Amino acid sequence: METYKFSWANLFGHASTVKQLRTTLAEENFPHAVIFSGDEGIGKRLAAQICAAALLCEHPVDGEPCGTCDGCRLMAAGTHPDFNVVEPEETKATRNIKIGQIRELQSQVALSPLNSSRRVAIIDGAELMLTAAANSLLKTIEEPPSPTIFILLTANRSSLLMTIRSRCTTVNFNKLSADEIRDELIRTGTDEATAQNLSIIAGGSFGRALNLKDSGGVELREQALSTLEKISRNQFTSEDIFTLSAQVDKWPRDKFADFLTHVQKLLRDACLSDVATPLNPDLSERVSQLQLSESKIFSLIETGVTFRKRLKSNAGLRLLAEAYLFRLRELSR
Q1: pTM for the full model?
Q2: Are residues 16 and 154 in the same domain?
Q3: Residue 160 in this model has a pLDDT that exceeds 70
Q4: Residue 254 sits in which domain range?
Q5: Mind giving me the DSSP string for 81-144?
């Protein structure tokens, strides 16, 4: 028999956190406002959906939705009238949750539940709420007009208003180990060598490992290291810069962000190889041979931070990549 879509069996890892959540659900002691905090792709959203399904289920068992009642069927179909999700609106330059989205949510939770004894609202990317939106949500969390449970998902809890944090219970989703990610990738059909490489660069997030698998993340890391190797040997020509920038121009912005992240992590490994566990242990030998002084590495890392911020602007990717790569070459000389 196929597992219900929103079953705890479908959430990989986080055994202690799942046990905690199931206990609060089974004891009908789930907080009215809770923050799920952890890295992107780590399982927070699925956990929130499972909690919502259990809270709206007619016959939950030990914190698990039954999967067969009307409430569970409506959840699986994405049509439950007592369930709401708010996500950031994305433009070319930014991703934000605006006050209009929160006001629309408020109009929904002002209504009495239709199918259940309560409503459940998930706010994904809660740290991206604009200040007016966050202040508006705060009032609703403090005095919800109907029985409503709010689940805020964030990859950066410290960016939430202190007043919101103080009124919510926080549940932390810790990073998964590289071994856990590797074994799960192999179990789901990834070859062993690819699974090993993905588990290293996924940063403790199984969702990120899957995204990197689909987007060529291993190859992108190799491109980042090859670029640094050429830069460190003063072999990175203007033609190389224009060629790579032309490639970047065809990428989604997230892919260039990943490229920058790989460069930053490789530079970090080069700088801290003697005092910290490397983030790319399989590349340690090559990283140790980068011909860059400590002061140059720090300058390159600072440049990466600057250009990560510029990625959030409307600047064209090609021009941004050219400026970044020329700056790396200049600082390495």
Answers
A1: 0.78
A2: yes
A3: yes
A4: 216-332
A5: TTEEEE--EE-SS-EEB-HHHHHHHHHHHTSPPSSSSSEEEEEETGGGB-HHHHHHHHHHHHS-
